[in-house]
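Chain A, query sequence.
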Amino acid sequence: MSLEPIEPETAYELYLADREHELAEASLQGHRYRLKHFVRWSREKGITNLNTLNGRLLHEYRMWRREDGDLNKVSEKTQMDTLRVFVRWLESIDAVEQDLGEKVLSPAITADENSRDVMLEADRADAVLAYLGKYKYASVQHVALSLMWHTMMRVGGVHALDVDDYNSQEQYLEVRHRPDTDTPIKNKGDGERLIAVSDRISDLLDDWLASKWPNVTDDHGREPLLASAQGRTQKTTLQSYIYQWTRPCEYGKECPHDRDPATCEGAQPESPSKCPSSVSPHAIRRGGITKRLNEDIPEKVISDRANVSPEVIDQHYDRRTQREKMEQRREFLGDR
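Chain A, predicted structure.
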């Protein structure tokens, strides 16, 4: 087989362009982020033609990336699995030797290692929402965090909602995949669904729309449900709300880390994620799912509402202890 010479930067751009219509935007961003390190390493190694790539170099990159990024096993696996996909794509355009992708090694990890344990506990979520309800009622932050906790929606789903997606009379939200107007959702069409909301959430949404919604359209003429005077609230802004409002000092609690909020880096407006107690959007979703599991809500109901398979719930979201599961089974089966 005759290989076609190609520079790493060119291959990187061509690969991303080729995958643009196959991957959800969040997944594409993940590939872009992970593979840019490979391009950086290639530049440092003086590799100008990927035809020279071989198993030894791939191993060198794995060791370099592990050290450079201070990666744990799960992160290393994610990085190398993405590289393997990229190398297989290179095979398809005759840029590297066939079956080179088989030489991209990544660590084997157990199901437990592949799960994340951090979650927002129900009592903390209640405290955050109670504080927002008292001091920031019907603000965009209050609405955003309330929706994510009570509906278990992903940030992308909340970001995609329009005013017309909310049915006040019948109390439900319609989640829709609209990539042509910059609001794709994970799982694309399979992620579209109707989500019922409680009286309390419906009242909150009604009050937000009646009194504080800024009456704006986005760049496509749509009316975003979560918005500021500048238009649709960005996903990064929604994420920052979560980091900000899960800091104990932000919702009226003492710092559990014995820090002074006046000097603590994590207490500053520009760096809320540096607070050890702040949590990510995924932790809110995990906490919400675990709360419903503890309430004996059938897993299929949670799966459909949160748009996640029962298998993924078991591996990545269910943080109940074995004893909690046993006691729930005992209660359900009447073993008293």
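Residues 25-45 form the longest helix (21 residues). The longest strand covers residues 172-175.
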